[in-house]
Amino acid sequence: MFTAKSSLIFKKQDGKMLSCIRWFIAFMIYCFNLNIVLICLISMGFVGCFVIPNESNQINAKEKITMLAPVNINVPDIISQNEITNWLEAMNVKYAKYKLTYPKEGIIHAKGNVKTGQRQVRVNVLEINRKINSDIIIRPEIASKYLNSKAKIKTIAEKNHSIAAVNGGYFKPQTGVPLGALKIDNELLTGPVYNRVGLGINNDDTYSMGKTDIKFSLNSRKLNLNVDNINQPRMLSTYVLIYTDKWGKFAPNPPKYGVNILIKNNKAVSMHTSSVEIPKNGYVLSGPKKEIEKVLGQKNLKLKIDYPKHFEKSVHIISGGPYLVKDDEIYINTKEEKLGAITGKNPRTLIGYTKENSLIIATVDGREKYSVGMNLYEAAKFMRSLGCINAMNLDGGSSSVMYLNGTITNTPPSSGGIPIPGAITVNLNSLITKNKNGRAEM
Asked: Among the four 143, 164, 389, 405, which has the fewest Cβ within 10 Å?
């Protein structure tokens, strides 16, 4: 903190100005007689900045000069305001060809057209800078308390009082269950599918991106059992799966020659050959009988979840695929992530982050005459042109939709977008309270 006593200094409020004045005075003292210098300074109004007045001097100053009251200036606030100004100027240059709006401090919405080949494609971009506004919260949300639920994005956003929202990752159309890793408030709701790429929102306000190579095991003093996945549809009869109360009220039927084991209060209490209700304070272990029957009767069971290094600090994880930009280079491997069916021009939802730690979310309109969509390579080039050092594709097609301040800003193939199981939301901390478990309550 510093106190400005002079009207001149108060108006400038600038450390550089003070430095220049002091340099100027030092130079004059060096070159000329001190008395002459003081006379010059008095006539220029600078002495008030350097002379510590006694009581009589203060009275005379009040009589002779109308001074502004001392003002406390918080230097960090000045720096912060400069950062905001610099960021806004940079955004105006970056999105010069777009129509810009500013939904909240730290958030830019850019809408316009970009050229892909010989065609124009309509895009919506949100750039979010939490360094400018730490009150911004970015998090995934699900449509309901259960994973097998769907709702339109406007419903999800309004339920959570969100400023903005876009659709999330892939899901099974018949049930709405997310296909891929989903973690909200440090609780892993679903495990990975095909080790696809995911975005981590970290506890230090940074982002990370990488393969969702998450491992599971069920352990006790006498047991160490590998688990293939959590809350995902069964892909092989040999898989050992866990279903928590987020899956729904009942676990699915076990596979052929398989069983469901009810685990309550960390103890395996019963074995079933059909669907079983999932306890609130437990889960259901499902798999081949010969693999999991040894769990029956075990006490003090603990589910261990091992995250890859890039997700060790992640409070939230949302998976998608494929990679578009990796370590500042275009990188697309649809074969590795088993996404060969989505390579053509389509409506898309894209997400990534810059080296300055700004999050960028974009939607691309498609399947219409005036906006045909983007293929994956075009999407990767577009995200890299926006400064993303890492970026990935989210679910697209009819799911691709962006909500902003009560309206749908893009033009999805279906009016308002189709019902989806969840969204990536942008909120202000002042609109959200937390319950004891850390989940958002409105």
From this structure: 405
Res 275: pLDDT: 96
CA distances from 11 to 4, 44, 45, 79, 240 (A): 9, 15, 13, 17, 71
User: What does the alpha-carbon distance between residue 137 and residue 429 come to, in Å, rounded to a whole number?
Assistant: 6
Return the pLDDT at 2. 36
> 3-class DSSP state for residue 229?
strand
From its phi and psi, is residue 50 left (phi > 0), alpha (psi between -120 and 50) or beta? Answer: alpha
Query: CB neighbours of 76 closer than 8 A, spacing ≥ 6?
Result: none
Asked if residue 212 lies in contact with residue 321, where contact means CB atoms within 8 angstroms, the answer is: no
Q: DSSP letter for 414, please.
A: S
Q: How far is it, in rounded angstroms, from Cα 304 to Cα 317?
A: 17
Q: What is the mean pLDDT of each run of 10 residues along the chain (442 residues)?
A: 35 42 47 47 45 42 40 61 91 96 96 91 97 96 95 96 97 93 98 97 97 97 95 95 96 95 95 94 96 93 97 98 98 95 96 98 94 96 98 97 97 91 93 45 40
Backbone φ and ψ of 30, nearest 5°: -65, -40
Q: What's the confidence (pLDDT) of residue 73?
A: 52
Q: What is the pTM of this model?
A: 0.80
Distance CA 326, CA 390 (A): 5
Structure tokens, 161: 């009082």
CA triplet 192, 427, 361: central angle to 5 degrees? 55
> What does the DSSP 8-state code read for residue 386?
T
Amino acid symbol at 235? M
204: burial class by Cβ within 10 Å (0-12, 13-18, 19+)?
exposed
CA–CA separation, 432 and 75 (whole Å)? 30
* Domain spans of the chain, in order of start: 2-73, 85-212+309-441, 215-306
DSSP 191-219: --STT-EEEEEETTS-EEEEE---EEEEE
Cβ-count burial of 158 within 10 angstroms (0-12 exposed, 13-18 middle, 19+ buried)? Answer: middle
Q: Which helix (H) or strand (E) holds 86?
A: helix 75-94
Q: Compute the distance between CA of residue 339 and CA of residue 312 in angstroms, rounded to an integer.
A: 26
pLDDT at 192: 97
